[in-house]
Amino acid sequence: MAQADCSFVIAPGALPLLGHTLRFLRDPLRFLRSLPDIGDVVTIRLGPVGAVVVCAPELVRQVLVDDRTFDKGGFLFDRSREFLGNGLGTCLHKDHRRQRRMIQPAFHRARLPGYAREMSAQAHAVTDAWRHGRTIDVLAETTAISLRTTAATIFSAAPAALRESLAADLATLEEGVFRRMLLPPHVDAVPTPGKRRYDRAHARSRQTINRIIADYRADGVDHGDLMSMLLAAQDDLAGPGTEGARLSDDEVRDQVMSFLFASTDTIGKALAWALHLLGGHPHIAERLHAEADAVLAGGVAGFDDLPRLEVTRNIITETMRLYPPGWLLTRTTTVDAELGGRHIPAGTDVAFSPYQIHHRGDLFTEPERFDPDRWAPDRAGAIPREAFLPFGGGARKCIGDAYALTEATLALATIAARWRLEPTPGRRVRAAPYALALGPKGLFMRTVARDVAGHEVRGRSAASGEGAGRPKDTSASRP
Ligand code: HEM
């Protein structure tokens, strides 16, 4: 990684050797939010690594659109390739177009109704086990919904034991990955217990996926899931039987790893944030419940309900504006480049933050306010296109954006039809950015079962009418 030897203004407060590392680690979101006041592009130093942070939305757009010059790389992506491999999210520009061509059909709109069936089923399964009046670890529950959905849509035919093993390893990898990305390789090489646990989870998860691939190849059945589609994927630009016309087993494994990482944490955290925000804005929660009652009448949300779940969708969109799971992204310049009329040498780390852009007062009125109605058709048109990038943009835009919005909307409506979640007094919820995805920390809420008329259903499960309760601690993440 190169030093950012550019003529951009340097963020104040750099310490000798450490640069801005301490300020960044202490409160990365605050640090990022302070940068637009300094310049459109600002140089920072994280230990020995220099990077330029692009703050102006039109310049971020330039970075996103020119993905040959601003290729995947930089301090967040260089290390992630070590464990995520060369999948769609991490591969370089030279491999990207072929991979995207081959994988895109799996995310075609026509596939969504099939995925939506699993999304609804898993949201129902997790929330059906809730009991009235309990305190739940919201992030664990929403992560359980997204993890179960991801497993069901990627490899529906994999044995439960393999899915469970993968779920546990994924949790370990997710915990350790951000730290590993920021540590210099020689420090990360020290075999601490955490590092050994991480390495074991890494090796085992690859073996597990390899085994699932081998089983799928052996039975040769099309299970209608993402794995079946990856195995059958054909590059139309390569002649049949030529090298590269199909994805190799290693390539399939890297894609699966990318999907698992890209989808589980992000959707789980977005849903958790939505529930947290609703807890603090009861008047908006009431509108959500009213919509769920009118559309679902106490049932589970399905794909055909989506057009009528407008309040729900706007709540999800606004949640991802305030707390975009992909809060910080990086690139590296492959050649000498220009940004905002200034020179950037080849090999420079370039960072940008959807979180920072989404909180700019010149792009959003009252940017700190939770206001789902800003996405209503009569107001949304006033928001510039480059101001909202929860899924990135350009050729590297999230391939799972429609999948993610569908899952989050169906899950939130399904929850709202039967449950109201109340904040637990005295607990402080904080944004925890020390992970690839920005999540809430300390989010525990109380379940209130409700019926279609909006009444509280005391002393029983909202879903089944049973009186039996689960243990108070519902934090175990179920795959
Ligand atoms: C709320 C949920 C999600 C959010 C916020 C999100 C966010 C993002 C962002 C910001 C990028 C661009 C990264 C960059 O420019 O460096 C991205 C790329 C990607 N996402 Fe998502 N994502 C979500 C869900 C999903 C799902 C459900 C899948 C797949 C099942 C997925 C798969 C991918 C892949 C494969 C890429 C790389 C695309 C490419 O480079 O061509 N994501 N995502």
UniProtKB/TrEMBL annotation:
Among Gene3D superfamilies, the record links this protein to: Cytochrome P450
Its keywords, alphabetically, are: Heme, Iron, Metal-binding, Monooxygenase, Oxidoreductase
CDD domains, A to Z: CYP170A1-like (cd11049)
Fetch the InterPro entries from UniProt: Cyt_P450 (IPR001128), Cyt_P450_CS (IPR017972), Cyt_P450_E_grp-I (IPR002401), Cyt_P450_sf (IPR036396), Cytochrome_P450_Monoox (IPR050196)
Region entry Disordered, spans: 455-479
- Composition bias, kind Basic and acidic residues: at what positions? 469-479
Cited Pfam families:
p450
Q: Does the keyword Iron apply?
A: yes
The record, for PANTHER family, names:
BIFUNCTIONAL ALBAFLAVENONE MONOOXYGENASE_TERPENE SYNTHASE, CYTOCHROME P450 FAMILY 4
Record family assignment: Belongs to the cytochrome P450 family.
Name of the protein: Cytochrome P450
